[in-house]
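Notebook entry, structure prediction.
Reason for the run: the old model in the group folder had no record of what sequence produced it. Starting over properly, with the input documented here first.
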Amino acid sequence: MTRLFGMVLLACALGMVGAGPAVAADGRLYEMRVYYAAEGKLDALHARFRDHTVGLFAKHGMTNVGYFVPAGDNPERMLVYFLSFPDRAARDASFKAFVADPAWEAARSASEKDGKIVERIESKFLATTDYSPPLVVPEAQGPRVFELRTYRATPGNLPALNARFRDHTMKLFAKHGMTNLVYWNIAPGNPHADTFLIYLLAHQSTDAAKESFGAFRQDPDWIAARTASEEKAGGSLTQAKDGVVSQFLVPTDYSPLK
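New structure, fully documented this time:
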């Protein structure tokens, strides 16, 4: 996941045809936050979120979207989560109130009585694309795995990449059994807003995901769409190095999105 999130942060310390990213369909600001727990402290970090942080976020006007850990091994002790806000001003006001809340200070102090439980935090602001499905947080739908995919467009080609997803890729994903959850670009005004496409899919399992992608890649409609888009662009729409990065995630027990 360091590779995944580091790619988003690359060079910035991390559509529609036009100069910028697609316009957000729902108008909300999303924030992707990645916490790296200190050695032996991941369970304590989960407990603090479960028992205190999630509720305090909601108290201060933040929408808890989903909380995840990598599927399988988690040697970096990562927690990946998503919040949403009406806009950046609301986000900043909510965090200011949260940090100043005595209940948060008490929870933080109690959890850190034996030392810090978080080594570092990474954050990126996201805006939904104009073709993203509305992100609805339903009740648990039974066991499933989520896939966080990050695409780094070649220079000037994010609009073409968005167009290919809008006109072809999403429909073909659904055809091959994948659930389209949400599609984001980096929020306007942030570094590299013209470069990244970040999205979430859901699958019944990692094996199901591999089977679905295998069928998708062999689909003549996909081959035709990819070929046409690359011929028009004069080459690949994604960077050769780390142009497409995938990370399978599973929800925590306290995640709204499951």
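Summary: The domain at 2-11+23-251 is CATH 3.30.70.100 (Alpha-Beta Plaits).
The old model has been moved to the deprecated folder.
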